[in-house]
Design brief:
Number of strands: 16
Distance between the termini: 62 Å
Number of helices: 14
Helix content: 40-55%
Radius of gyration: 23 Å
Shape: globular
Strand order of the largest sheet: 10-9-11-8-7-12-13
Structural class: alpha/beta
């Protein structure tokens, strides 16, 4: 497909999405839920078809020598297929945000003023490797009354098309336009350039993928972008932490999965705890093949640890590498997170209620946690049904972006013949 063909193709997708968005915006909740349920049923029914399509993508990925973390994100299993279907059913079970009225109050003039939640319109979603995003994005956009144009990575083209077939079957069975969810069929990167500049057809862009992709989208888009660049997540073990709880949380936050944006990349430990907790923790990490890079104090306690450099504190490893810093107090921990963090997800382990409240109030991240793993920073775990992504921006949505993040609000005014003086 040459450049002019791609432009024409993308314009056609945009026109179809805009027309479909008007139909979906006024669709009844029952129709949207019927579509979501039918999508989930099709995905469950076609589990073997999806896994076979995914196998083609995995073969191509391995042949191209893609990194292990990328292959991990690309892989579909019976469990992940079931999770996709469950996510759609959870979205169906959630309250429909569209049309919700809040804050309706009388003014001295006699009019009532409130806000109504409305769809954003057409959402363009650009993502790498994760085929489950196709189902999650379709479901969330639909329930929030939006049309979606999805552009998955070339490495997942077979998986994404197979999932898209299930999605469009669900739309068709519910009497909704199949063009409400369109998956771009070309792998040419020029399609992305068109998508992020079609402001007459697309209202919001959501990029999900590596830092390079997201930086490109943020720099080149002529449409508002909901995004996060890095997931430099921290766990701080306070000197008033429960020892066993701290061990379990610090282990899980790093090793449960390495290639996710909510995985811990830097562990901060209070100096009073370091000599007791670091030896058993480091053994757990070493046994699991995690490379440790520590500051001077940490290296003195664990001589096998490599010395951390300044760049390590900024690093999102997305692999079995962890940086460790020993701090004197809560203030130093918060200062470190403020300087090096990416405002994604940060956690404190402590039994001190006052310090926990300070951490919650002073750490300026999209998710801040007490006595649990950063891996919970996820729309599914937060009860959103699924998520379109995680935003570290402060406008328009922040944290895991679910249904409300895919809507806006407009003012509504109810009168009974009142006139302004």
């Amino acid at each position: 497909m040459n450049t002019s063909d791609i432009k024409s193709y993308m314009q056609a997708l945009g026109q179809q999405a805009r027309a479909a968005s008007r139909q979906v915006a006024k669709a009844e909740t029952a129709a949207k839920n019927q579509a979501l349920t039918a999508m989930a049923n099709a995905i469950r029914r076609d589990e073997s078809v999806l896994i076979a399509a995914n196998a083609k993508d995995l073969d191509n990925a391995r042949a191209k020598g893609l990194e292990a973390s990328m292959i991990d994100r690309l892989t579909l299993s019976p469990k992940s297929v079931a999770t996709m279907a469950e996510g759609l059913l959870q979205i169906a079970a959630l309250a429909d945000p569209v049309g919700e009225i809040s804050g309706l109050n009388y003014r001295p003039s006699g009019i009532q003023v409130g806000k109504m939640r409305v769809p954003l319109g057409v959402i363009g979603i650009i993502y790498e490797a994760r085929p489950n995003v196709t189902a999650d994005a379709a479901g969330l956009c639909l329930k929030a009354g939006n049309a979606a144009i999805l552009r998955g990575g070339s490495e997942a083209i077979h998986s994404n098309q197979a999932i898209a077939a299930c999605v469009q079957e669900g739309l068709r069975l519910a009497g909704l336009p199949e063009t409400a969810v369109q998956v771009i069929e070309t792998t040419d990167r020029a399609a992305v350039g068109e998508l992020i500049t079609m402001k007459e057809f697309v209202d919001v862009i959501v990029p999900r993928g590596g830092k390079g992709l997201i930086e490109r989208i943020a720099n080149e888009a002529r449409i508002p972008v909901i995004k996060h660049l890095d997931g430099v997540c921290h766990v701080y073990i306070d000197d008033q932490a429960d020892f066993d709880k701290a061990i379990k949380i610090a282990d899980h936050a790093k090793t449960q999965r390495y290639g996710t944006c909510n995985t811990m990349e830097t562990l901060l430990i209070h100096a009073n705890m370091a000599s007791n907790i670091l030896p058993p923790l480091s053994k757990i990490y070493f046994d699991k093949g995690v490379e440790l890079r520590g500051d001077e104090t940490a290296c003195r306690i664990i001589p096998q640890m490599k010395a951390a450099t300044e760049s390590d504190w900024h690093e999102e490893y997305l692999g079995p590498v962890l940086s460790i810093r020993i701090v004197e107090n809560l203030d130093q921990a918060i200062d470190h997170i403020t300087r090096y963090g990416s405002q994604h997800t940060d956690a404190i382990v402590t039994e001190n209620y006052t310090r926990a409240r300070r951490f919650l109030r002073e750490v300026d991240s999209s998710s801040v946690m007490v006595n649990t793993t950063t891996r919970f920073a996820d729309g599914f775990e937060y009860g959103l049904g699924a998520e379109i992504g995680i935003s570290t921006d402060k406008l328009h949505a922040r944290g895991p972006v679910g249904l409300e993040g895919l809507t806006s609000q407009k003012f509504i005014v109810l009168g009974d013949g009142q006139l302004r003086n």
